[in-house]
Hints:
It is a single chain. The chain is an all-alpha fold. It is built from 4 helices and no strands. The chain has helices at about 5-35, 45-65, 70-95, 100-120. α2 (about 45-65) runs antiparallel to α3, α2 (about 45-65) runs parallel beside α4 (about 100-120) and α3 packs antiparallel against α4.
Amino acid sequence: MSEPSRSGRIKDWLLYVAISILIVISIWMFAMHQARIGDSPNLPLKWLGFAGMTVIIFGNAIRAYRRFWGRRRFWLFLGLFSSVHSCLGVIVLLRVAVPLWLYAVLTGPEYLLLAAYLDYFLNSD
């Protein structure tokens, strides 16, 4: 495997900086919102846990199924699974206090379910 070019490293670095800036701005906006409404300064850990779980599951799936990136079906089925994951997650989180350890327990099985789902629909051509 060849070493990345200088322009590729610069692009990667700029992408990391942009992501970092977005994270800082998001945290700042959350803090300002909490201060404005007089709510607790505590972070909404159940939502952050769900976001982290989502990033891990779908990030790994996108990386693992790289060979399908050019196929429209991949993005369609990934989007459908993401919609179901998000809708069910929001419904559950609005109704139940979820302990953080549960995200760690559920992330692996949900990724395996997503991988089986993608294998079934993408390899059925």
